[in-house]
Amino acid sequence: MSFAQSPKKSGLPREVVKWLQSLDLSFYPKNVRRDLSNGYLVAEILSRYYPQDFLVHSYDKGTSLSAKQRNWSQIEKSLQKHNLHLMKEIIDGSIHCKPRAAELLAQEVYTSLTNRSIRDLQGPEPDFTDQEYQKLLPTLARSTASKAIKNNLRITEIMAEPDISTNQRKAEVILHRHLELQAADRVLSHRADRNLCRLAARKPVPTSRGDECSASSGDAKSKFCSSSTWSRAAVTFKEIQVHQPVRRTLVNY
14-114 architecture in CATH? Predict the structure, then answer.
């Protein structure tokens, strides 16, 4: 007996997932960031509403940067005929596979074609960095400054915009946000340490009873030592005197 596999979690709202499944596409976008990047599947979605303006066979299925740019340029020109526009930042983020860019693209296409709204649709200034993901990680597991720049400034971005000053400004913005996150972590860590010190001052550790070993009265043959760390359990240490036999030499003087 075989069962139809349900699509993996894609990060899309439920209504968008149902809408995509109803369009009878050539393939379902299981990996939204990858499958929407080159624009081919977006053109196929738009062809369900405007078949005359979006001819699927005229779009490239390739994943190279040049193929992506050609497809998206053609999509934008066709959308202008119907007074439809997609945010340039969302398109660029989808081309370069930025975090949450493709998900936001699918939602924007959905609202434009169906005239429906989505509650959790992001504001006019989307953030396509991995900063939200970094905040979920422990401090020691987060990216270094160089890794943060590498993760958020893709090689395709540099290829699409090879201007050195432009890429330098992007790197500076990423580095600035990385340093801000580190500074915020230090403030939180300092507050946590200060709170621990206050709690320690309010609840001092009880002094141990009988920490010092005391000899028993009389011959001092046994000593007793107890500590609070052992739940006030007494540990007995007994001194044993060993009587060694006198050595006799074989040589007589």
Answer: Orthogonal Bundle (1.10)
